[in-house]
């Protein structure tokens, strides 16, 4: 692999996925104290990002799985998950921190995948022209670098969620922040894409 392509791929991934670190940290905070959280989040992140890559690669070769007009409606996924998390937080608002964490459970892989995919709708639009001009070899290099960096992003999200000051803030406010961030992402995707004539 060409070092130039590796550097470009790493830079492109970092720029298009910087917001995922916050979301991953919130997922880790949600799953604090539960077994298998790292695995569930990693599996979900890989599933969601693999779907982003599959759509971008197919579109670079001229196939389209999602019509351009459908992409803004991906915002409904994080919006629905955010509303679900908000309802759960409201139901358990008088619980202690330990009771709330036990009731929430950890994030499920498909929830993480849905948020990753929906949040990556704009990534697809950026990746398609890059992949189309990179050719099959360049596209493969980008995909390999991206998939390696997904693990780095999961580790970074876990790292931030376990820093004492951040962990304390997330354990205290995470049950409010996660729904707010998910609803905000969903609304932003819907509004920026012009869904429902917004």
Automatic annotation (TrEMBL):
<protein>
    <submittedName>
        <fullName>Cadmium resistance transporter</fullName>
    </submittedName>
</protein>
<dbReference type="InterPro" id="IPR004676">
    <property type="entry name" value="Cd-R_transporter"/>
</dbReference>
<dbReference type="Pfam" id="PF03596">
    <property type="entry name" value="Cad"/>
</dbReference>
<feature type="transmembrane region" description="Helical">
    <location>
        <begin position="6"/>
        <end position="29"/>
    </location>
</feature>
<feature type="transmembrane region" description="Helical">
    <location>
        <begin position="139"/>
        <end position="161"/>
    </location>
</feature>
<feature type="transmembrane region" description="Helical">
    <location>
        <begin position="41"/>
        <end position="66"/>
    </location>
</feature>
<keyword id="KW-0472">Membrane</keyword>
<feature type="transmembrane region" description="Helical">
    <location>
        <begin position="173"/>
        <end position="191"/>
    </location>
</feature>
<keyword id="KW-0812">Transmembrane</keyword>
<keyword id="KW-1133">Transmembrane helix</keyword>
């Amino acid at each position: 692999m060409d070092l130039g392509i590796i550097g470009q791929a790493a830079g492109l991934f970092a720029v298009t996925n910087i917001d995922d670190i916050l979301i991953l940290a919130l997922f880790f905070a949600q799953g604090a104290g539960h077994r298998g959280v790292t695995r569930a989040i990693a599996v979900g992140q890989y599933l969601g990002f693999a779907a982003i890559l599959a759509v971008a690669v197919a579109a670079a070769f001229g196939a389209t799985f999602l019509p351009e007009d459908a992409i803004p409606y991906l915002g409904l996924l994080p919006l629905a998950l955010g509303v679900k998390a908000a309802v759960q937080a409201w139901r358990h608002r008088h619980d202690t921190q330990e009771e709330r964490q036990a009731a929430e459970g950890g994030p499920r892989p498909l929830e993480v995948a849905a948020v990753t995919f929906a949040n990556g709708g704009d990534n697809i639009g950026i990746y398609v022209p890059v992949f189309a001009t990179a050719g099959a070899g360049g596209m493969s290099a980008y995909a390999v670098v991206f998939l390696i960096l997904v693990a780095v992003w999961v580790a970074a999200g876990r790292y931030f969620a376990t820093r004492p000051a951040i962990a304390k803030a997330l354990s205290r406010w995470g049950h409010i922040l996660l729904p707010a961030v998910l609803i905000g992402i969903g609304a932003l995707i819907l509004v920026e894409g012009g869904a429902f004539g917004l």
